[in-house]
Amino acid sequence: MAGLRERQKAKRHRAIIQAASTLFKQNGYEAARIEAIAEAAEVSVGTFYNYFEHKADLLLAIVSMEVEEVLHQGEGVVAAPPGDAYEAICALVATYYDHSLVYLTKEMWRTAMAFSIQSPDTPFSRRYRELDQQLSEQVVALMTRLQQGGLLRAGVDTRAFGELTFLGLNGLFTTYTVTEGMALDALKAGMFRQVRALTTQIGTSEGA
Amino acid sequence: MAGLRERQKAKRHRAIIQAASTLFKQNGYEAARIEAIAEAAEVSVGTFYNYFEHKADLLLAIVSMEVEEVLHQGEGVVAAPPGDAYEAICALVATYYDHSLVYLTKEMWRTAMAFSIQSPDTPFSRRYRELDQQLSEQVVALMTRLQQGGLLRAGVDTRAFGELTFLGLNGLFTTYTVTEGMALDALKAGMFRQVRALTTQIGTSEGA
DNA sequence: CTGCAAAACTGAACCAGTTCAACTTTTTTC
DNA sequence: GAAAAAAGTTGAACTGGTTCAGTTTTGCAG
């Protein structure tokens, strides 16, 4: 059975994330002071740092949730992709993009990305890269499956193309988070164009 | 003729960049205190902030220099590319990568990237994106030229492929700066593989 | 139940980037 | 060339994330 200590720890952990989540949505990440988060979670500042190494670690908790859900949804697409290479890849891309603002704002994404680049040796950064890695693998998996289904040419290096596609969709996503005025539709349109160019070249004519 | 004020301003600007450059190389970007930079430039902290809005703006000065030189070298490649699509694109990529550590360390790159993502509305960020944009355009220009020379298939959307290639080389470069143990050769090898996969599919057989 | 060790909590102090009101220097005006 | 205006300089104070020495709480052995 879990002791008092364990239970309290879990409760506080949840309370802090809850408080942070609320304050982030309310006033943005930057504007949310640690002091305010601690207060809202009924905890001292010192205790906050007992649970999280950095303010940014709060984001990681949210980003992880986000990406894990996206990976799960993505599995569905890979398992039963549309019967056309262009449609299939776009479906996966759209799954990623559409989910991206459920828990996070653009500002929060920017902060998470920036932190993961700036401090690569933190647990945060390692985990973030790991999640990216998994997304990349999923794109590769889809391409491999399309190839097996005869929708991509036999000679295509699906790993290389999958990774390239991921880097592309990731790069465009960064542009999107960095451009306050850019809507989700513009992001999708941009990526769909890349996918169109790609599948026109490496796809077979089966689904054209 | 330039007044005393103008001359002093230019002199101080140079002195600060000079001091910062030295200290950054010596102990790294993070470790270089504004106070120390100001002191080395024989200027007060307040004056420093009269010349640069943020500490990171010092990086921009260096990054700009860096990228401008790279763009210049890249022009050479685009103007007279090797007679094979794979070789040509790799040559451009290598030009970019080889130059990347002349003025900047990995840590400095990370800081610059992180800042440009984190604070998109600063002059720093805008300029950084502009430089990225120019690099991207250069890749597109090369691809277009290769297509005109019959080294890429006629139907290929060189803009889409060029931009995708840039996003790819950029993404791998980020991985490189974030992985302290990764050597330049590993970075190049990774990108060359992508280019190989790409040119195998969209290249003509002329230079095979 | 008592005492002790380990774990967790606390908030005042720390640190480094940034700001700003007072001061100095340069330029302009007459 | 004196006086006012404009521009630039200064460092002490501010800000907000992070640390840490001292205190409290919990778990456990006797």
Automatic annotation (TrEMBL), chains A, B:
UniProt-listed Pfam families: TetR_N
Family matches, as SUPFAM superfamilies: Homeodomain-like, Tetracyclin repressor-like, C-terminal domain
Ranges of residues in domain HTH tetR-type: 10-70
Molecular function GO terms recorded: DNA-binding transcription factor activity; transcription cis-regulatory region binding
Keyword Zinc-finger among record annotations: no
DNA-binding region in chain numbering: 33-52
Alphabetic keyword roster: DNA-binding, Transcription, Transcription regulation
UniProt protein name: TetR family transcriptional regulator
Organism of this sequence: Alloyangia mangrovi
